[in-house]
Amino acid sequence: MPTDTGQTTAAHEGWQEPGTDEQWSDSFYFGGGDGRGLAFYSRIGRRPNEGKVEGALGVWLPGEGFLLSFGRAKDASEIACGAVSFRCLDPLVLWELRLEGQGRLFERAEHVGTNRDRYRTVDVGGWLRFTSWHPPLSFRSGLAEWVATDHYEQPGSIAGVIEAGDGRWPLAGNGLRDHSWGVRDWQQVPFWRWFGMVVDPDNFAMVNNVGLSGGGEAAGGFVMRKGEIAPVASCDTDSELDMRHGWQRRFEARVTDDLGRETVLHGEALEVAPLRQRRAGRVTFVNEALTEYRWEDRRAIGISEYLVQQPAGGNGAGRG
């Protein structure tokens, strides 16, 4: 069983003491799915020096479309915003997610960018419970100074129900969560690529590449393979991008870990939600893709995330 290399404790399972930088932030994330196409991501981010908190929820609903919900509110002590709230029931082990509010239901995730006005407003509800498989895994590398350098992740099981409009989708599957805090300046990061393939407690990969402002990139994450875990030492990625929009279509990530093992992740994006972050006249796209992963004889449906910067004067799709 892996150990937490960063000595994460119950004290880290809540909002952290903020730094002084205006863009210091604190973020909790949960995501997962049933492995057959029902999948979600959710995030609550706090920016205490700006006095605000943001909540985001995206759900791929088989046969129904893609649900997007986003909220912004004044800073508060609860880990909640918009349609999403998170509550820790047992530190480092068990969390509850509550969904209640409204969202925009698009025919496909890509329509968030390409057909932004074609959606139905629906009620959102439900609850989920996340149960961890292992102690948290603290990232020691792969994080640039602008990307919330205190960061741990944790794979586990997800179970519950998601409601949207008149539909109700039971969910029982795998997922992961993370908690990160520090200065988070979306516009200062040249790019990042994040891959999350969660098969079972003995086989999962959480890998990221982050571009550095001086050139090059850093790699981070963990690979659990047949019950033996090791930090990521390096990762080389070949990506096929959409010719028109620039988001990911297919990729191959070649990972080497500290044990010298080589792991190759193949991914194909099934649907991409192009989300947009704006600040000071600059636009950053965070492309969240429902992704079919292959790793040797293993198969899984998870999420891949590509952050790209829009060139000055360029046009692009995403969330307002």
> What is the tally of helical segments?
1
Strand-residue fraction? over 45%
Strand-pairing-aware structural class = mainly beta
Reported for the largest beta sheet, the result is: 8 strands, antiparallel, barrel
The radius of gyration computed from the alpha-carbon positions, rounded to a whole number of angstroms, is 18 Å
Number of spatially distinct domains: 1
Amino-to-carboxy terminus distance = 42 Å
Report the order of strands and helices.
EEEEEEEHEEEEEEEEEEEE
Summarize the amount of helix as a percent range. Answer: under 10%
Shape: globular
Side-by-side strand order of the widest sheet: 1-2-3-4-7-8-10-11
Low-confidence stretches: 313-320
Mean pLDDT across residues: 92
Q: Count of DSSP E strands?
A: 19
Characteristic key phrases:
8-stranded antiparallel β-barrel, 1% helix, disordered C terminus, mainly beta, 320 residues, 19 strands
What can you see in these coordinates?
Helix content is 1%, strand content 64%. The longest helix has 4 residues, at 111-114. It has one domain. It is built from 1 helix and 19 strands. The chain has an 8-stranded antiparallel β-barrel. The model is unreliable at 313-320 (pLDDT under 50). The termini are far apart. It has one helix at 111-114; strands at residues 24-33, 39-47, 52-61, 65-74, 80-81, 84-90, 94-106, 120-132, 137-138, 150-164, 167-183, 191-200, 203-211, 217-225, 228-241, 248-257, 262-279, 282-295, 298-309.
